[in-house]
Design brief:
The chain is an all-alpha fold and 124 residues long. The chain contains three helices and no strands. Among the domains are: 32 residues; 47 residues, no CATH class.
Length: 124
């Protein structure tokens, strides 16, 4: 292998490739910058439901417990509603034998829906 005064024959190639690599990196970094200047509106949003966050300049207090939107049902109310549902279920089972499954209901709906749609299309 032929040696140059400062090293081997590949050192000029290596320095050229290093220069190209640095130039490519700088080119890619320049793509991240922008010359467009946009004015940001810092005024407070109009209306209560603007859908945007409002900067009050303070941190939120996370120690305040959230307020519920509606009163919660008590255990007694829950038991009462559950017993009403069980009563309704047992009365349906007594009338028809067994409560139809979801699959049966969907098949019946598909059959009646198809007939109804065809009659509407045909204008009958």
């Amino acid at each position: 292998m032929t040696k140059l005064a400062g090293g081997d024959i590949f050192s000029p190639v290596r320095s050229a490739l290093a220069g190209v690599a640095v130039a490519m990196a700088l080119f890619q970094l320049s793509a991240c910058t922008s010359t467009d200047t946009q004015i940001v509106d810092t005024s407070s949003p109009s209306g209560l439901s603007s859908g945007q966050a409002r900067n009050t300049g303070t941190f939120p207090n996370l120690n305040i417990p959230p307020q519920s939107a509606a009163s919660q049902i008590s255990d007694a109310e829950k038991a009462e509603k559950l017993s009403e549902l069980k009563t309704a279920q047992s009365s349906q089972e007594a009338e028809g034998g067994a409560v139809p499954s979801d699959e049966e209901l969907l098949k019946k709906l598909a059959a009646t829906h198809a007939q109804k749609t065809l009659s509407e299309i045909e204008g009958k």
